[in-house]
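Researcher: Last one for today. Full complex below.
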Amino acid sequence: MDAPVHTPALPVVAAPPSIRVAGLNHWFGTGEARKQALFDVDLTVGAGSLTVLMGPSGSGKTTVLTLMGCLRDVQDGSVELLGHELNGAREADLVLYRRRLGFIFQAHNLHESLTARQNVMMGLQVHGHDNEAVQRKAAAHILSALGLDDRLDYLPGNLSGGQKQRVAVARALVGNPAIVFADEPTAALDKESGMTVVRILKELGRQRGTTTMMVTHDNRILELADRIVTMEDGRIVKDTAP
Amino acid sequence: MTALLGAIMGRLPIGWLQLIHSKTRLAAAMAGVAFANILVLVQLGIMGSLNNSILISYDLLDADIMISAENANTLTEGDNVARQRMFQALAVPGVQSALPFYVATADWERADGETTAFTTFGIDPKGAAFLNEELAPFVPLLRLRDTAVVDRGARGVDPDTLASISPGNPLRFEVSGVTLSAVDTMVGGGGFAGDGYMLVSDQTFHRIFANRSTGAPDHILVKIAADADPDAVLARLQAQFDGTGLRVRGFQDAALEDQAYQTTERPTGLIFGFGVVIGILVGIVIVYQILSTDVADHLAEYATFKAMGYGQSMFLGIVLEQAVILGILGFVPGVIVSWLLYEMLGAVTGLPVELTVATTAAVFAGTIIACLVSGAIATRRLAAADPADLF
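Model: Here's the assembly. Have a good evening.
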């Protein structure tokens, strides 16, 4: 096993933390093929902040993101999400925690047979409240805010890559999540659209206290981040505020 | 439709939207379900016609009890019964009347070289009461030697020729070297054992089947006195003939036992029964294949829903929603095509093939259940939808 690397001191966070990671280790595979992907990762993320997670491929940033997003079981260490410990949590509880999160994927993963508006409505229906009329209105509102008011009833197949990504962003944000996990959300967008998405996330943090954890290689948006965490070989090697 | 389903389910009808998204795939899926339905319905139709054709023989008669040889599993099978048993039966309290009943198949070699096999009933003209209401009036016509009443639906015979038959314009034809005069026609129908029915007197019957003895009918038909307890009379007759190698059964029971025997123990019934099972299995496999492919194609989208916090029940709901919709959409063309095939089959074979409401309802229920089973199996593939793989 590699020797642990001392992680740099974390900046002081004023708001109560949304995410607290301590001594997190993670492995993939079994037996001889078992390989450690994370080494003793510690990270505390304050509410309302926009944190960018950077690093080369295979550095472990996506693994951290999926563990914090309740998408993988925590094997060793602690991940506390909105006050809930994820290590040892039941699957049913993880499903409930995920409803307070928003996910934006690099591949937008829109449902091809649902219109833009219906895709966004799925982000509301998971909560089981509000009637369809309210959901339709809320979906239209957020899509309009992202410049898609003339594409509400288009199927993803009839949208451009950038438009699809904006629908995916709308779907992630419409349920007013406490935390947004975004994986290369601006990769398919032009500079202007990309900046718009990041500004919206930033504004949500300011207005609603929505925390954003973003994996990106896009240097254009670093200036908007509150914090930039860099990972290498499964360890946090740099943690700075721009 | 989308709005209606949405209102029924209280959520977006994702299963329906997925199905209509790919029209070609939907059409293929519907064709698959329809094919399975046709397979099952046609097999059931033929099986039903077997059942109906068996009962027709019994419906032509009117009796309360039938005395047969122990090995007489059907009306035309088994040993004969000694005529003296009829007199023994008549001595049993509660028995009003009894009749020796003769039945055999007579082949009419037509002028065109083809053969029509008549299931021939030989009846003592004094026993008109043992025929159903439609046949009983023909009995006086049979008193003349070598006269017959033939089936107007007899398979292979020119319908116009049959329609022209009347006492004033009899049809003469030869059977087993005996020239018969058909003086009227009756309603019967072709079955699996014969092409139609022919009614003759017992005397004419023995002229046609010269090797048969008047003292050895195939069955003895019994009528119970109006004031007698049928169960008690049956029990007395059974006691009377206990150990004689005879079966004494209620007439309806005999018909049902004949039906059960022919459908479950004879190759014909077993083959069609097996066809129904194969049809159901084919349907399940087709729907499973369609749904399982659909799940596989949408795995990333399901994984996204999982990441968003949707539970397993939602995915199960989508797949089962698709299963039920496919079942309904495939059933409609399946029934229409089956109905057309029934009509064709009935016209070509003369078999009593009938698409009943009960059969249609049963197949519909079976289709939905089969689709749900397929859907439930297909949902196992959902386990492969891992939201962590989305990153």
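The mean pLDDT of chain B is 90. The interface with chain A takes residues 6, 11-12, 14, 17-18, 20-21, 298, 300-301, 303-311, 386-388, 390-391 of chain B (CB under 8 Å).
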